Amino acid sequence: MSIPHRRRSGTELLHTPLLNKGTAFTRDERLRHGLVGLLPPAVSTPDQQAARVLGNVRARATMLEKYVDMLSLLDRNETLFYKVVMENVTELMPVIYTPTVGQGCQLYAHLFRRARGLFISRHEKGMISDVLRNWPEPDVRVIVVTDGERILGLGDLGANGMGIPVGKLALYTACGGVPPSQTLPVTLDMGTNNAKLLDDPLYLGTRERRLEEPEFDALVAEFVAAVQKIHPKALIQFEDFANHNAFRMLQDYRGRACCFNDDIQGTAAVTLAGLYSAGRVTGRPLTEERILFHGAGEAAIGIADLVVDAMTSQGLGREEAKRRCWFVDSKGLVTAGRAGLQEHKRPYAHPHPPVTHLAEAVKTLRPTALIGVSGQARQFTREIVEEMARAHERPIVFALSNPTANSECTAEEAYGWSEGRALFASGSPFDPVTLGGRTFVSGQCNNAYIFPGVGMAVVATGARRVTDEMFSTAARALADLVSEADLAKGCLMPPLDSINDVSAHVAASVAALAHRRGLATEPEPADILADVRAKQYRPVYPDYR
């Protein structure tokens, strides 16, 4: 048989991650598409390819090396990447996202191999629509955008923050089933105030200090308008913007764009789900919780706002619900008498004598739930956890700060210091803990249980807006999926290896709400869950004819 001349399309197949099958191209496909000689002669099955990938990843000595391996695979063969991740999600989520993504962002410029996503700086002002047109996929439905100013608990990483949108969108697909061709990572390079980055000769971002208002606002406004023009069906997820911009941006755009802030709303929903699950163990309704937050940034305020909404929906007065939420920030307990409070803290500034330290606040307020969202490590000391356990038979202790190095305490500490009575959840994963002959498997209070399902609901329904009610609905749907067996071993979340199915149920609940509230632009199907599942991406190679 004669071998066709190599065609341009053949090389493009090998270098287009969405289309490439690598060694899985059949002999006939290689002949038809000019691939003969460009690949080793043996044809691999997808399972063989996956085994090869896993063997290589597992052989790496460090999590960062595993992260680089997986990103390289994503750059070569997206179908294989998602097959491997979706079949090994418990093992690989910590590799491709938290906690490893934090280190990946810190070293982004030094690890750089191939660009993913779009970078937009002030130099593109006036031409952002043209930049969006440079993206090769025409039907974008989910955009994750960051300016890199508050990456996890690591601070200002500038353009290095692109690792976060890339990682988040990988989870939209692997967990939620949003087709990867419909996702777009974006970094708004506003500059950086990180002197170390500005002095780094390998730094790839704009080498200037951060834009401030009104230049910052103008660039964001042009970006949002350009998205609405070029990708009118797209959901915009604002990610890892600093507090002083995050609240304002969400308030400015939530009523006129299909958008949300995962740090504020996604974190809130997964935490509310954790509180619902904990309530099944304590027998205490949400309206009777007294919650103390360590940290008063966007995550903490977002959680409190959603908790207040949930409490009021259960009959508690709004002001009383707010009084059940207390905050400790860098200056101590947030109280009504303190001068110079930021606007977002004022609704939760209650009358109380000054309290300087978290330990004192725990003793004074006797909270039923202690939630850490400050990004500061080791803040939940033995003294604090033991005080929580003295005050309550089953204290709720959520150490949510990421990455793992920033966690307020470990699972082993929370269980050990509370004699196994703490209801513990964390932002990053911890290994099971054996104590007194019992093994505790703590839940990861990870936004990945929420945002992929919400995003899939928007894609499935064509929703015009994203509302707080959607996140309340997602929280309840998630909590309802926690089994008694999960609770018995200390886990307040469903098993991570079921997250694709979990996301389908979350998406179906949110989609049903979108239809009820008149936000959907697609017709309502007879079976919403079946419709969501039918639209979820599956990592199966196309048959090239």
Summary of the model, kept short:
This protein is an alpha/beta fold and 545 residues long.
Provide a descriptive summary of the structure in words.
By secondary structure, this protein is an alpha/beta fold. The chain has three domains: 8-96, Hemocyanin, N-terminal domain, CATH 1.20.1370.30; 100-257, Rossmann fold (3-Layer(aba) Sandwich); 265-448, 3-Layer(aba) Sandwich (Rossmann fold), CATH 3.40.50. It is 44% helix and 10% strand. The strands form three sheets. A seven-stranded mixed sheet has the order 8-7-6-9-10-11-14, with helices on both faces. Strands 1-3-2-4-5 form a five-stranded parallel sheet, with helices on both faces. Helix 14 crosses helix 15 (298-313) and helix 21 crosses helix 23. The longest helix is centred in the middle third of the chain and has 21 residues, at 262-282. The chain starts with 7 loop residues before the first helix and ends in a 10-residue tail after the last helix. The model is unreliable at 1-8 (pLDDT under 50).
Features:
single chain, 545 residues, alpha/beta, Hemocyanin, N-terminal domain, Rossmann fold, 3 domains, 7-stranded mixed beta sheet, 5-stranded parallel beta sheet, 24 helices, 14 strands, globular, disordered N terminus
Q: How many individual helices?
A: 24
Helix fraction, binned, reads 40-55%
Terminal CA distance reads 18 Å
* Most strands sheet: 7 strands, mixed
Q: What is the CATH superfamily label of the largest domain?
A: NAD(P)-binding Rossmann-like Domain
User: How many beta-strand elements?
Assistant: 14
Question: What count of structural domains?
Answer: 3
By CATH, the topology of the largest domain is Rossmann fold
Strand content: 5-15%
Poorly predicted regions: 1-8
State Rg.
Answer: 24 Å
Tell the overall outline: globular
Look at the helices and sheets and give the structural class: alpha/beta
Second rung of CATH, namely the architecture of the largest domain: 3-Layer(aba) Sandwich
- The strand order across the widest sheet is 8-7-6-9-10-11-14
